[in-house]
Amino acid sequence: MLSSAVVARPVVRPVAIPVYEWLPWLAFAGFVLLFLLYMVGSEQGALSLFGGSYVHEWMHDSRHLLGFPCH
Predict the structure, then answer these.
(1) DSSP letters of 21-37?
(2) Residues 6 or more apart from 41 whose CB is under 8 A from it?
(3) pTM listed for this prediction
(4) Are 44 and 56 in contact, with CB atoms under 8 Å apart?
(5) What are the φ/ψ torsions at residue 53 (nearest 5 degrees)?
(6) How many of the other CB atoms lie within 10 Å of CB of 59?
(7) From residue 64, how far is each of 53, 59, 61, 71 by CA, in Å?
């Protein structure tokens, strides 16, 4: 007759992260995403934050790469 030993396994419990700890990171990520959306979507012409045409050209190429409508 075979006998098997009962092995106690530890119970894995998820760590609870309070909302007040991740809320600032969520707000920061939202700000960064909105800034990136502005940069890709409308960094050109009269709304330009940066002078010259280098940033405009990089953003224009990014629009084409991401399939963002530009012209």
Answers:
(1) HHHHHHHHHHHHHHHHH
(2) 63, 68
(3) 0.56
(4) yes
(5) -115, -5
(6) 20
(7) 17, 9, 5, 10
CB 70 within 8 A of CB 64: yes
Instruction: Note whether 40 and 66 are within 8 A (CB).
Output: yes
Name the domain count of the chain: 1
Note whether residue 37 is domain-resident: yes
Cα–Cα distance between 21 and 27 in angstroms, integer? 11
Structure tokens at 46: 């009269």
Confirm whether 4 is domain-assigned: no
| Cβ–Cβ under 8 Å, residues 50 and 35 | no
**pLDDT tens track for 5-54:** 788 888 889 888 888 889 999 999 999 999 888 777 776 666 667 777 77
11-18 — which CB contacts under 8 Å span 24+ positions? none
